[in-house]
Amino acid sequence: MIAVLSTLVCGVTLLLAYVNKARCAVGPFEESGRSVIFDVIKDSDVCYSDIQYLWLGRGIDHHVFPYITGGITPDGLLTGGAVEYPVLSGLFMWIGGLGSRTDADFLWHSALLLAPFALLTAYLLARMAGPAALLWAAAPPLVLYAFHNWELPVVATAVAAFYVMTVLTRYSLRDRAIAAAVFLAIGFCFKLYPGIFVLPLLIYVLLGEHPLREKRFDVRGALMVAATAIGTVVAINLPFALAGYDGWRASITFQQLRQADITTNSLWYWGLRPLFGPTQEAESTFQDVVSVASPLLVLASFALACWLGVRRYRLSGVYPWIGVSGAMLCGFLLFHKVHSPQYTLWLIPFLVLLEVPWSLVVTYLMADLCIGIGVFRYFYALGAGNPYLLEQNLVQVGVWGRAVLLAVFFFLFVNAGARSVGRVGVPGPESLALGPVSADRHIAPPARTAA
C-alpha cells in the first residue's frame, strides 16, 4: 500500500515540477524555437532548466543524432551533434527532441520521457524503506530538479541495483550482484556516478553477506561483477565510439575542460578562489590547483569509504556496500569541481534507505533550497546590476551547509542501519545488503571457534 501511495504522491509532485519549469516555456517564440520569455525570467522567476536551455547549441533543434558528427573546439565549444553527457543521456536528449519545434515542445516531451523513472524510483524505494520513500516522492528537490536536467533515469538505475540486492533475495548473491552491476553500468552511461558503486558491490560479493557463516572469499564472483559492469559499459559505448569517435570523445573532453567558476556551486570557488588574486594569472593558477587537487581528494575519499566499510565488516561480519556507496557519493559531491543543484537527487535515495537523523536530512534540504533558489536569484541580481549581497549570502549558506552535511553523511552512511521494512531481530540478507542493522536491533555473531 505504501508503495502505491508513494508512487501516486510522486506523480503529483512531478506535475508541480513540470508546471514550475513550464513557466519559462511559453510563446511567443523566436525563429529558432526559443521562448522569448526564457531569457527574461529564467533567473528572476527561478524556472530555468538545462533541458530548455540546451534546445539550442547541441543540434537538438535540428534533430541531429548525437555523437556521430561534431566534436569540440580547443576552447571547449561543442560542435555538430556532440553533447557534454554520456551516451544514454545524449540519446534521451535526441528522443525528447523528436517532433519538437520549440523549446516548450522539447521540455514537454522530455518530461514525458523522464517522469516514469521518477515514479519507478518512488515505488522501489517504498518497497525497500516504507514511508521514508515519501522523502523522494514529496520533498522540494523533486519539484526543483525533476525536469532541470536528465537525472531521473540515472537515479532509477542506481535504486534498481539496490532493489535487486536487497529484495530479490530468493536469487543467489552472485546472480543478484551481476544484475545489479548491469544496472550500475547503465547508470554510468547516463551520468557516470553509479559506476563508482561497482567497487563496494564487488567487495561485498568477495566477502559474502552472511555474518554467521564461515567466510570464504568469492574471488570468482567479484571478478564476474567487475567484468559484467565493464562489458556493459563497453557494449553501450562502443557503437558510438566507432561511428563517430570525435563526437563521442567530446563529451569527456568537455568535462575535463570545465572550470570551477561561479556556476559550479563548489567549495573550490567559494572557499579556495578568494585566496588567489584577482588577476588572470591568479585565475589560471587556481584552475591548475583545482584540476589536480579535486580528483586526488575524490579518489582519497573513495579509498577512505571502502576502508571504513572493511572496518565495519570486521565488527558486524557484513560489508555495508550501500552505505559505502553513499559515502563515496558524498566524497564526490564534496570535492568535485562541479556541484550542480540537481545532484541532490542523487543523494536522496541514500537518505531514504539509511537510518540517518531526520533533523540532518531536513537541514540538508534547507541548505539545498538556499542553492536551488538563491543561485538563480543571485545570477539575476548580478545580470540586472542590482544589489546582490542577500542572494550571495544565501548561496554561501547553501554551499557551506551542504558541504558540512556531506562530510557528516560520509561517516554516518557507512555505520548506518537500514530503514528496511519488516526486519526485526536477527538481520536477514535484505537489511544486511543495505548495511549493518542499527544498534538497538543488532545481535552480535558468536565468537569463532576452532574446528
TrEMBL record:
The keyword Membrane applies. It comes from Nocardia tengchongensis. Keywords: Membrane, Transmembrane, Transmembrane helix. The keyword Membrane applies. This is DUF2029 domain-containing protein. InterPro entries: UCP010361 (IPR016570). The chain crosses the membrane at residues 106-125, 154-173, 180-207, 219-242, 289-310, 316-335, 347-380, 400-418. It comes from the Bacteria.
